[in-house]
Design brief:
InterPro entries: ADH-like_N, ADH_Zn_typ-1, ER, GroES-like_sf, NAD(P)-bd_dom_sf, Zinc-ADH_QOR/CCCR. GO terms for molecular function: oxidoreductase activity; zinc ion binding. It comes from Cohnella thailandensis. It holds the Pfam family ADH_N. The chain has two domains: 3-128 and 276-339, Medium-chain alcohol dehydrogenases, catalytic domain (Quinone Oxidoreductase, Chain A, domain 1), CATH 3.90.180; 134-271, Rossmann fold (3-Layer(aba) Sandwich), CATH 3.40.50. It is 28% helix and 29% strand. The chain contains ten helices and 16 strands. The strands form three sheets. Strands 3, 5, 6, 7, 8, 15 and 16 form a seven-stranded mixed sheet that branches. α3 packs across α4 and α3 (129-142) crosses α9 (287-300).
Length: 340
């Protein structure tokens, strides 16, 4: 039996607890079917990692491995694989119902894997998959925005929480699609970040949104992408959305939303969860492969920037705990990556 290094948990504990994340050794898996076995070169840490690891009364019999952003090299392919071969450099976000990528080797279905952007190193590439998939699906699949700038002339998009990982990608994609982009941020440095990534305007999400939009000359916005505290902003989103406009959120709510607020405007609300396709094995699962390849093309052509703001090394429990603690502050801008 060949073993590999990994970082896992058996109990769900505060991040400052010594056993919150642990260095462990697990059996090295083998590729079967449509799976790739990837030698992990770099990972990034997302709020979903922190959410899943957060304290709860549950234990795991064997260590659970987190991590849903990987860049690496294909080591081995299953017998049904057609999209990749050993030696290919890849990047992906994986599946929420399978072990994560915080390990030396990782199994992933080829249909949710893209070729790594050739102009980026592994750490820069690892910052992109989860946020790019979420932003792309949110804008183009859920909100139904066209990628053709001429279709979007005069249309506006409000991104609530625009300085985070998803917001930084969504801002770039929306600006490239010709929309007027208004991003929210709460501090001068995050407001500047939002503008640097292509937003036309930055407003503060800790103050009422509608008066700030009105100051910009906007009675309504055509689209809203909510990346922060859906219930806190819900009434304002309902007020700000244009008649027949569309709202998409990625943040679940503790209480049901009052959808009746959207009725008179015939407005649409949808959720975006980038793990839906892989979790349910949807017939269009391969769209994430195509999407990630398109993102790689955009990056290599200079049309999309990676969002790394902090690099840590090496990949082990100590550095992962540091990354989780930073994300728990709620004040991170861009992405934290770990390599080596």
């Amino acid at each position: 039996m060949t073993m590999m290094k990994a970082v896992g948990l058996t109990r769900y504990l505060p991040i400052d607890h010594s056993d919150a994340l642990m260095d462990v050794e697990l059996e090295k898996p083998s590729a079967r079917g449509r799976d790739l076995l990837v030698r992990v070169q770099a990972i990034s840490v997302n709020p979903v990692d922190v959410k899943i690891r957060s304290p709860k009364a549950r234990t795991e019999e064997s260590p659970r491995v987190l991590g849903w952003d990987v860049a690496g090299i294909v080591e081995e392919v299953g017998e049904e694989v057609t999209l990749f071969k050993p030696g290919d450099e890849v990047y992906y976000a994986g599946s929420i119902v399978r072990p994560g990528g915080n390990s030396e080797f990782h199994l992933v279905d080829e249909r949710i894997v893209g070729r790594k952007p050739s102009t980026l190193d592994f750490a820069e590439a690892a910052a992109l998959p989860l946020t790019s998939i979420t932003a792309w699906e949110g804008l183009f699949d859920r909100l139904g925005i066209s990628r053709n700038p001429s279709d979007n002339e005069g249309r506006s998009l409000l991104i609530i929480g625009a300085a985070g990982g998803v917001g930084s990608i969504a801002t770039q994609l929306a600006a490239a699609a010709g929309l007027t982009v208004i991003g929210t941020a709460s501090r001068p440095e995050s407001a500047q970040w939002v503008k640097d990534f292509g937003a036309d305007h930055a407003i503060n999400h800790y103050e009422p949104l509608v008066p700030q939009l009105q100051q910009l000359g906007l009675e309504f916005v055509d689209y809203i992408l909510c990346l922060n505290s859906t219930e806190l902003h819900w009434a304002q989103m309902a007020e700000a959305i244009a008649p027949q406009g569309r709202i998409c959120s990625i943040v679940e709510t503790p209480e049901p939303l009052n959808l009746t607020l959207l009725k008179d405007k015939s407005a649409t609300f949808s959720w975006e969860f980038m793990f839906t396709r892989s979790r349910f094995g949807t017939p269009d699962m391969i769209e994430q492969h195509r999407l990630l390849n398109e993102v790689a093309n955009l990056v290599d052509a200079g049309g999309l920037r990676t969002t790394v703001t902090k690099r840590l090394s090496p990949i082990n429990a100590a550095t992962l705990k540091e990354a989780h603690a930073l994300i728990e502050t709620g004040r991170t801008i861009g992405k934290i990556v770990i390599s080596n």
